[in-house]
Amino acid sequence: MDEIRSRLRSDDLLAKITDPEDVVRKIIPKRGSIAFAGMAGTSYPKVIPRALAEYADKLGEKFDLIVYSAGTCGVDHEESLARIGIRRRYPFGASAEVTRRLVNMRSYHVTDMWLYEYSSWLRRGVFLRKLGGIDVAVIEVTGFHGDGAVLGLSVDATPALVDAAEKVVLELSIAKPYLYGLHDIYATRPGDVIGIRDVLDRVGDSVLKIPRSKLAAIVISDLEDQRGHYTAGGGLDVKVVENLIDFLSKEVSNDPNLKSEYFTLQPAAGPIASLLADKIIELDVDLRIWGEVASVRWIRHLGDKVRGLSSAVIFTLPGDEKLREYLYENINEIRRYAVLRPYEIMNNPQIISRFIHVVVQQAIEVDIYGHANISHIGGRIYGGVGGSGDHAKPSYLTIIALPSITSRGLPRIVPVTPHVDIVEHDVDVIVTDQGWTDLRGLSPIERAKAIIDRCAHPNYKDLLWKYFDEVIAKREGHQPVDLIKAYEFFQNFSKERS
Amino acid sequence: MDEIRSRLRSDDLLAKITDPEDVVRKIIPKRGSIAFAGMAGTSYPKVIPRALAEYADKLGEKFDLIVYSAGTCGVDHEESLARIGIRRRYPFGASAEVTRRLVNMRSYHVTDMWLYEYSSWLRRGVFLRKLGGIDVAVIEVTGFHGDGAVLGLSVDATPALVDAAEKVVLELSIAKPYLYGLHDIYATRPGDVIGIRDVLDRVGDSVLKIPRSKLAAIVISDLEDQRGHYTAGGGLDVKVVENLIDFLSKEVSNDPNLKSEYFTLQPAAGPIASLLADKIIELDVDLRIWGEVASVRWIRHLGDKVRGLSSAVIFTLPGDEKLREYLYENINEIRRYAVLRPYEIMNNPQIISRFIHVVVQQAIEVDIYGHANISHIGGRIYGGVGGSGDHAKPSYLTIIALPSITSRGLPRIVPVTPHVDIVEHDVDVIVTDQGWTDLRGLSPIERAKAIIDRCAHPNYKDLLWKYFDEVIAKREGHQPVDLIKAYEFFQNFSKERS
Question: Could you give the ipTM of this predicted complex?
Answer without folding.
Answer: 0.97
